[in-house]
Structures are given as structure tokens and as C-alpha cells.
Write a structure and sequence with these properties.
heterodimer, A: mainly alpha, MetI-like fold, 2 domains, 12 helices, globular, B: D-Maltodextrin-Binding Protein, domain 2, D-Maltodextrin-Binding Protein, domain 2, eleven-stranded mixed beta sheet
Amino acid sequence: MRKIKELLIEKSLLSSALITIAVTFGIISVLAIEAFQFFNEVSILDFFTDTQWTPLFTDKHYGILPLLSGTLLTSFIAISVALPVGLSISIYLSEYAPTSFRKTVKPLLELLAAVPTVVYGFFALIVVTPFLQQFIPNLSGFNSLSAGIVMGIMIIPFVSSISEDALYAVPKELREASYGMGATKLQTAFQVVVPAASSGIIVSIILAISRAIGETMIVAIAAGQQPRLTLDPTVPVETITAYIVQVSLGDVQHGSIEYKTIFAAGITLFVFTFLLNTLSYRIRKKYQEKYE
Amino acid sequence: MKKLVLIISLAIVAISCGEKKEKKAVSETTTLEGTIKVDGSSTVFPVTEAVAEEFRAVQPDVKVTIGVSGTGGGFKKFSRGETNISNASRPIKDKEIAACQENNISYLELEVAYDGLAVLVNPENDWVDNFTVEELKKIWEPAAQGVIMKWNQIRPEWPNEEIHLFGPGVASGTYDYFTEAIVGKSGSSRGDFTASEDDHVLVQGIVGDKYALGFFGLAYYAENKDKLTLIGVNNGEEVVKPTLETVSNGTYRPLSRPLFIYVNSTSVKSPEVVEFVNFYLDNATELSEDVGYIPLPSELYTKQKESFKAFVETNKK
């Protein structure tokens, strides 16, 4: 009886694992098939070199670059916010803050990741953009700057939490050796602990970037819906994710080329996040046991 | 607690019953059956469809099929007697009248709503007070894509700043209509503007951007009057801003037009068609507004109902 029970549990655990993998493969194959059909009609060279993305209009262009630039621009702004802030927080929490403070503040910070992204989106559109317009009068109502900043706030916990774990895991001996050499606390933190924990920090940054690239609601609400190849953060742009949302909400005919564009865009996005995740996995694997 | 739930559910039931009764009161009580065939303009389609949907609640056994062959395609079928009602976003043409006469088909034209588009800018925009149709065309035509990017390309005295365009997405009838009226070909425009089916996104975009220019249905502007500046359009003689009045009297050209339905005279022998058309005229005020159009003044609906009644009387025998 007991054996059967054990067996049952084991199999059900196995099947949940298998279901997850099956779903992933299902998604990938759907993406790949539809994207393949898309590339039957549109040359892959045009897809990567054309500077306009207007598949829904009269003068059709299928250049992913404007969407890609929108995605990378908002993600870049987000990382420029999240990296310094997140890293400072993690260094403070692990090197300076008393344990009790660390124990209360860390979960609070992680709350930031629990705010629904649609709330962040409206926060960017209704609060941050008007605020920024006081300093930048030419700022459009939809712009990558405010969407990027708010997205940066959203991913701060990704950076701070994982980096803090990495910093905290640096062995005490290293710090003590550094103090023994006469280094100050600041020197120890930045020249000994941070480099020692660099792999963990890099992983945290990559995960944060991958989160930013895949983020949808904030950019769909606050960054605009106009594909534009630009690095100017004050004008409306459209990210890959925002385009997918826009097309799936409109009534584009199933099976049409317009419909297939979302899969082409989707697979581009997938390739990006997949590469980033693999990279972070590799880095973690490689440096994990360096000090143990 | 249970009592409260009971009371509330009773209240809800009562309210919903009341609503149904109200709509039923408009029509009479006998149940009809049959099929009503409608075809024609895709612009009128949303109104007719909304009416048909409501009508289904009153007369569930009457099937209303609505095609979207376009106004011309609709009249073709109408003149062959294949449809009972034809949706039209323009009056019937002489050629089509002749085709109807050839097949001994007489009809009645009924106006059901107006379609109007608003051209809007940010309230801080102090340089634009009107557009000509040519200027709008220059901004929105496909050739403008990537070319007309700054305000001073339209009129030299306007600022040397990027123009940010907002408009309904390609799936909307508003987009088709605007492109048809301004560019000259339905569904033909530049692609580098913020296109959204969600009018709220367009309002937000124009509200937050000094250099924005956008358009959408007049009905939606009415809800956001205080946040946007409405721009008049030069119709060739004068600059006209869209209002209920200028839209209904046709001076707000070319961004407004009446929408029609045409009823076949032999069809009014079937009571379900008469019922449907009466229901249409009774509910057009509310439903045309629901789908983003401008209703006719109520006395016009009454007038149309009268002429329809007379039309039914003469054709019943």
C-alpha cells in the first residue's frame, strides 16, 4: 500500500515536470511554425535591415529594427536606473546595515516586484510623465524615458536581492583579510567583496535585463504605440511586446500576414530572452563554487 | 444575511425585468418569425448590428443577417431584390436608381445617424486654428511616411518641431472613413503614427503631448472636451468646427456624412421587417451614440417614422 502511494506521488511529480516541458516545447513550436510561414513571405534580410515597421498599413514594411530599438531603449533606461540603485542597496544591506534592518528592509524591497505591472504602467503615464514634463517641456505624453524609469524601479528588487545574496555569501575571511591589510570598510566593500561576488551580480543584471525586455504592460501603456527607429527617449516608441499586444487586441484576420507578424516579433523576443537566460545560467554554473 | 442576498437578487431580477419590458413596450407583444436580409456599407454596419442585437431580445425568432459588401455592393443586391434593407453611407446614385426601376423595385430612404470625425490637438498648441483638407491629406497620405515629420513642413510659420500623430487603428471604421474622406482611398495612410483601437490611448497621447495631432469619432471628443482642442476644417468656403449642428446640416465637410438605410417596398409586407425598421428608428438615438456616431435630432426620427408608416400603408396592398 505504502509503495503504491509512494509510486503515485513520484509519478505525479514527474508528470507535472513533464507538463511544464511539454508546454514550453508547444509554445516554441507554435512560434517557430508561424514565424517560418512569415519568413516564407517576407525575406529575413528585409526583416533585419528595413528601418520601418508598418505591416498594418498601405505601404507595408517589415523591418523589426524600430521595434527592437524601442525594446532595447526602454530596457537600457530601465537598467541605467536599476543597476546603480539596486547595487547600492545590496552593498548597503550586506556590508553596512545591521542584521535586523536587513531582515525588515529586504522583504519590503521585494514587494516592489509584487506590484502589478499594469499599475506601474499607469503610474508612469499619469504621475511620472507629467512630473518629467516640468523639466523636459518637449517630452511627449508617451515616451520611453518615463516607461524606462518606472520599469527600472520595477526591476530594482531583481538586482538588489540577487546581488545582495551574492555579496552576503562572500566568505568572512576575505573581508577580515582585507581589514587586516588596513583597508577601510568602503575599500573592502568595493575592491574585495564586489569583485568576489561579481558573478552573482552579473547574473542579477542579466535576469533584470531579460525581465525588462519581456515586460509588456508598462511599455504598452506608457511608451506609446508608434514603431520608430530612434534613440531619443522623449518621443513615443513601440516595443516588440507592445506591438504584440496591439495586434492581438485589434481584429486582424487569423492566418493573414499581419497576424503572422506577431509570431515573427514573438520569436525575436524569445531568442533574446533565451540567450540572456542561458548566459546567466552559464555564468552562475561557472563561478558558483569559486570560494567554497 | 440570507435575507439580504434574497432581497438584492430579487431587486436585480426586478430591475432587469423592468429593462426588458421597457424595450418590449416599444414594440408590440406578438412574436414574429422570419429572416431579414441586410447588406451594404460597413460604416452603417455597427449601428444596424447593434439594433439587430437588441431586436433579438424582443423578437428572438426573427433572424437578421447583415452583410458588409460596401454601399455599392449592397445596392447591387438590393436592386436585384435579394435584400430587404440596404445599409448605405451615401445617398443612392442615379445608376443604382435606374437598376432598381428596371427590376420594379421601389424603396424608401431613411436617415439613421450621422458620422462625424474630430481633428484634435493639445490645448497648449497655439499655432493651429484650422486645417484645409489638402493639409490633412499631406500629413496622412502614404507618401508622407517618413517624410512629413515636422509642423513647419505643413505651414512654414508653424514650429520646427516634430509632429506626433495619433489615430484609430486599421481595424476601425473610423480609420477607413478618415482615409477615404481625406486621402481619397479607404484604408490608405502612412504607417508611422500611434495607431490604437482604444480611443482612450489616443486621448491620453494628445493630452500629454504639445506637438500631437490626432483624429477620432466626434462622440469620443464630446467626453473629453476640456482636455483637447478641436480644430476646424476648411471645407473650401469656410472653416467649420464639428458640432451637432454642423455635422447634421452637412457643412462640416468632408468629415461628416449622414448614414442611411434603404427599405425595399415589397419587404414591408412582412410584419417582421416593419417591426425591425420601427425598432431601428426608435432605438437609433441611443444605439448610434453607443457605437460612436451622432444621432439625428429626435424630431427627424419622428418624421422618418411617419414617412415609413405612410410607405408601409401604400405598399401593404
